[in-house]
Amino acid sequence: MSIEPEVPYDTSLPDEDPGTWRDPVILPDLNAMRISGYNDGISKSGFRESSQPDRIPDDYWILPPNVTVADILGHQRSRVDAIRARTNTYISFNDEKHQMDIWGEPSEIIKTKEFFNELIQTLPRHEDKKKQPSWGKAEKELTGKAKLKKERREAKKALEKSFQGLPIVPQPYISSFAIPDFSLPIPKLVGEKESFLNTIRAECKCYMWYEERLNIIRISGQNEEAVKKASARIRNWYLKCSRRPRPCSLRLVSQPSKNLMVSFRALPQGFMTYCYADPDTEKTMLEKQRLVEPIQTGHLRMLENLIELDDHQPKTKPENTLSESVATLDKHNREAIQRALDEGLESLRLFDWEIRLKVRFGQICLVDYPSKKRLFSIEELSGKIFPDPKFYSVLAPCIGKTRENMDRLFEYLSTNCEEYSDSPRTSFAIEALQYPTCASPPTSRRTDGPPKARGDPWRTTVTASFTSDGRVGLWNCLAECEDLVTISCVNLESEYSWETKLEYARRLPTEVNTPHSMFVSKLRLSAQNRLVLVSVPEYAPKIVTQKTKWVYGWGKYVVEVGRDEIWDISRVNRSDLALPLDLGMTEPHRVFYKVSLYKEEWRNRFSENLNLKIGEAPRWTTSDFLASETEDAHLLMEIAKQFANILTKEVPVYWAGNNNQASLF
């Protein structure tokens, strides 16, 4: 039996086109062609994208079930080109497998996956809309340990409540706090429903009540020490409620060793302004602001006749003899510093705020100053110009723009000081506009009505450090940052002047449902040790500063040499605000070095204020800063002057290489 076909192939005919054998109605098997490598670049429409690699994907990233392709690639996949340029890889969404196919180098693919993981963190969380059961579950019976814990908690509440109101029986120990006047409203002192008093009552186990007729608060209890403690706490609480921080600004001239005149010179070419500003504002600052420039001079000898020219021992005083007012400048400065710091520290002592005290070095930059184009004497400068309320100056902290400017200082510190084991330290400061809490989502369009006005956003500063694996470590968020006491001192015989600042700020809570907490939780470090920002609602970062600090022990003081790298977010090109922003892809808009000085004891003392309860006071007093064997206003001045002289010797001014001659006026 023959197995030849009834209609044999005609070998004389030409070969058919291999692409015409299939029925054109049948669509290509995209999955099979993808696996075989034939269809790497074919889209859903059946056409190949010209730029897609002609091979199987190098890797892939699977989208979570609750994430859509629009969440990642944007509406109509508008972000594809931006993501490709950002990650330096080629990506294409695989609709059949709900995954992102990736082509590129292995290191770039890892970065791309991290980018996608960061991107999904920015997406709003979709609440589970499943219907809740109408019947609640029966409460589980508490274990022995949990039951005991609950009983103790209830007993504590009962004990606290037992001290509210008047005592049922007379108490053996009685005290009172007489309120000086009626300027402070009593509800502000005792709190809503006496919440402040209740805290002191419970912690001191004393009875406390207010007698309106005598304007007095009575305290009674079974323990003498407890009554004394409660009396002290209500007194401290009254002082805190009635006090306000007392700001003060001193502008001083360090006592020179010889007579000098002073001029106001224009800022030299290459000078860095005291604060970051956009280019137009910075240009205006450079044109209008001035530096103090000393000019050596002396007293002219007044001769009554020509015979005195041959007198080898003139009766007039020597040329460099200082006037009485100039010769007592240090004494005047010491008294002014003592008074300003004493009042400032005491006004802050009872507040649970972040407090800092630090000495900084740089050039005193004149912002508002007399427009007269002439020379001024030290007497005029210290007695008339600097104390004038219209006069305004600030410290420009930049002492170097490059590491080369600082090499000699680092060499001096390495030789004469002891570097800390964790030096250098790196942290990030993010200045932002935000609301303190997240907006409440509307529950019903009919009942809620129009949204309530929330007022102006707050100016805050988040400071964060990172662990070795690139995750956020310690951080805080500060608001209402203020300079309470500013003491700037011009040193006419040194290239560098100094400034002492006493600052305070309020710490915002770090609950998870706040904009700053959401923002910090998404912060990451890139492989280049740069910050990666992720946008969150109601938090708008403005300025980011990467701070690197080399820390040295210099006797009883700590010297910090800092490098600040500043990014202005408004000047960073961003094609899509929803995408994470890697600052490693943008050069800093300003880089400079600075130097500061402080005592570790200052930070330890101020740390007590962060945990103060109602009416509590820290252990430190103003005497610790101003009236001890190792700390007072005179020692502060001498240490600042001594280190300013070291900087003059080791750090030449960074604009000296420009060889420019700025005008005196």
From TrEMBL:
Residues 321-631 form the DUF7905 domain. Transmembrane segments: none annotated. It comes from Phycomyces blakesleeanus. Residues 445-457 have a biased composition (Basic and acidic residues). Residues 1-21, 439-459 are annotated as: Disordered. This is DUF7905 domain-containing protein. It holds the Pfam family DUF7905.
